């Protein structure tokens, strides 16, 4: 049949990637497309190609309606199951539904489905009791080969990090000790910068033109990284002049703009903001706004009868007004996903629109193109650096630091993120074998029993399954002993003497401990290489030193331990332990 739309090249690539993945695997997969990239067209094409029953889920009625409309435009009939749209149709081959409505009416979904598509799938948690999992599991019982595909612009969740484990370009997301991901594979991804460079989206103009900013840093966050409404209101109540000054600037800058969306922190805050705006041009929408009134206000805004739309957490997804060209963010959030969804409201193309002004008055400091996900920036000087794995050659991207010549002088990576056993297309060489992560570790904790390298947070050796002694326990026990010395090491220096190499450990308070390695003895040389050759340049360039001269030439690249523990002998201190890459509670000096 002739389709009403010609898919853009990347949309067709996303469809092809889905077909390719599910022909060989039943593992849940994710497609990542920026807001405005046309996810509904990808969904419609996949639904058109399907031969068995499929279910398309999302969390708001606007997206249910939008996805259904795209499918219907192919001349095909699909059902809608959504209380918000007052329709409960589950008999069609393709059903577009809200997750809330399906979860509450599972008895009406007793058929065998071949595919579940989840729009805005970053909302799926890994918990068995979530609404999405309560739908997926019963349908999987009816069809063990059930496929689950997610689509999102922001593939991460606050508190979880990335929502998938394996990326089709051959690397792993996250660390060994993270919780289980709701999706296994990312099978296609298009970066925001690609869409902007090729003119598919409007360029965001992020400016630091704030006359004033709120400081939310003193407020406590909950486990999801958000703030208590009462505490936010108390803080904002003390800074009404700040709010007035911000809105005065917004109005001034809006003079040359078509439409402004303002994201407020709380309902009280939104009401205050609204008082400072031109009443005839302003609408306020909160979770308490009646649906009929909300729809009417949104229509007036889209028809350009209103210029300012103030909202509290209700228009971040499923809202499409292409003429929006000014986003003012007055709410704090630790959620990268939410922040990007907010900015995405202003990035759709529209006639005469050249950019979208984005001003963050809440100091969220989110990088739209390279968001800090999973691992926060270790310090303000850190930047993304490329670190090649000495084991497999994969080019990892970690937080780190460079010198004036652009060379990496420090990085905070722990394990190589590369995947082994893949062909040039990113497929496993053996179809029945899952991808295997490279086991090279830049930072590691050696097992005291078998010597295997483990993650620095590991409690049990991955090789021999023996419990690994906690560094905190080592330090605590040593500090109790009268004949023990524990220093927090600020650096090491070398003193070569014939075949012997003396290492001097310098403590933060001026203490010193020493030990020697005799390079003429293979056993001592092997111990030195295990401790320091393996960790040279933070593990970037491991070396098996054969003589002392080699060590002296690269002494500036030797990695010093964080702590050194020694016991008093008759006339000297004997080194008992060296603790590297310490993460525990004794981070500061004793």
TrEMBL record:
One of its GO terms (biological process) is translation. Keywords: ATP-binding, Helicase, Hydrolase, Nucleotide-binding. One of its GO terms (molecular function) is hydrolase activity. InterPro entries: Helicase/UvrB_N (IPR006935), Helicase_ATP-bd (IPR014001), Helicase_C-like (IPR001650), Helicase_Restrict-Modif_Enz (IPR050742), P-loop_NTPase (IPR027417), Ribosomal_zn-bd (IPR011332). It comes from the Bacteria. Residues 20-173 form the Helicase ATP-binding domain. Coiled coil: none annotated. Residues 246-391 form the Helicase C-terminal domain. The keyword Transferase does not apply. One of its GO terms (cellular component) is cytosol. This is ATP-dependent helicase.
């Amino acid at each position: 049949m002739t389709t009403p739309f010609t898919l853009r090249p990347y949309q067709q690539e996303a469809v092809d990637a889905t077909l390719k993945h599910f022909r060989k695997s039943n593992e849940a997969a994710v497609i990542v497309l920026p807001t405005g990239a046309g996810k509904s067209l990808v969904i419609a094409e996949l639904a058109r190609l399907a031969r068995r029953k499929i279910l398309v889920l999302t969390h708001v009625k606007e997206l249910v309606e939008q996805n259904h409309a795209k499918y219907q435009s192919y001349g095909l009939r699909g059902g809608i199951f959504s209380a918000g749209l007052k329709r409960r149709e589950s008999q069609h081959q393709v059903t577009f539904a809200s997750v809330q409505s399906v979860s509450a009416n599972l008895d009406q979904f007793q058929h065998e489905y071949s595919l579940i598509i989840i729009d805005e799938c970053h909302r799926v948690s890994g918990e068995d009791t979530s609404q999405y999992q309560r739908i997926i599991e019963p349908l999987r019982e009816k069809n063990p080969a059930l496929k689950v595909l997610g689509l999102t612009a922001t593939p991460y969740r606050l508190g979880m990090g990335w929502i998938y484990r394996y990326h089709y370009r051959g690397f792993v997301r996250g660390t060994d000790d993270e919780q289980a991901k709701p999706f296994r594979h990312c099978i296609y991804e298009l970066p925001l910068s690609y869409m902007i460079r090729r003119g598919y989206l409007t360029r965001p103009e992020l400016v630091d033109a704030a006359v004033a900013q709120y400081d939310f840093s003193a407020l406590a966050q909950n486990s999801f990284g958000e703030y208590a409404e009462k505490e936010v209101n108390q803080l904002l109540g003390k800074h009404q002049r700040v709010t007035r000054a911000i809105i005065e600037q917004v109005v001034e800058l809006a003079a040359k703009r078509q439409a402004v969306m303002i994201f407020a922190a709380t309902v009280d805050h939104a009401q205050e903001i609204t008082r400072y705006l031109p009443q005839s041009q302003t609408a306020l929408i909160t979770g308490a706004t009646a649906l009929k009134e909300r729809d009417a206000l949104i229509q007036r805004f889209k028809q350009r009868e209103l210029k300012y739309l103030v909202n509290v957490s209700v228009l971040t997804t499923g809202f499409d007004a292409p003429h929006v060209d000014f986003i003012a963010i007055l709410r704090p959030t630790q959620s990268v996903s939410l922040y990007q969804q907010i900015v995405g409201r202003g990035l759709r193309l529209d006639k005469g629109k050249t950019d979208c002004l984005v001003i963050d008055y809440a100091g969220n400091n989110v990088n739209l193109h390279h968001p800090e996900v999973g691992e926060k920036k270790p310090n303000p000087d850190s930047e993304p650096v490329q670190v090649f794995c000495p084991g497999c050659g994969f080019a990892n991207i970690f937080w780190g630091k460079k010198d004036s010549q652009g060379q990496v002088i420090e990085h905070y990576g722990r394990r190589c993120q590369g995947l082994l056993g893949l062909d040039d297309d990113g497929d496993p060489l053996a179809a029945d074998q899952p991808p295997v992560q490279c086991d090279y570790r830049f930072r590691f904790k050696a097992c005291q029993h078998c010597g295997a390298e483990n993650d620095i947070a590991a409690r049990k050796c991955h090789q021999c399954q023996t419990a690994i002694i906690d560094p905190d326990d080592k330090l605590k026990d040593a500090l109790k002993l009268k004949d023990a010395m524990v220093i927090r090491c600020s650096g090491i220096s070398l003193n070569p003497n014939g075949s012997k190499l003396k290492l001097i450990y310098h403590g933060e308070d001026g203490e010193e401990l020493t030990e020697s390695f005799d390079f003429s003895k293979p056993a001592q040389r092997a111990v030195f290489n295990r401790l320091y050759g393996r960790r040279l340049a933070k593990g970037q360039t491991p070396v098996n030193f054969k003589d002392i001269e080699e060590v002296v030439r690269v002494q500036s690249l030797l990695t010093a331990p964080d702590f050194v523990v020694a016991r008093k002998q008759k006339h000297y201190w004997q080194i008992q332990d060296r603790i590297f890459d310490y993460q525990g509670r004794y981070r500061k000096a004793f």
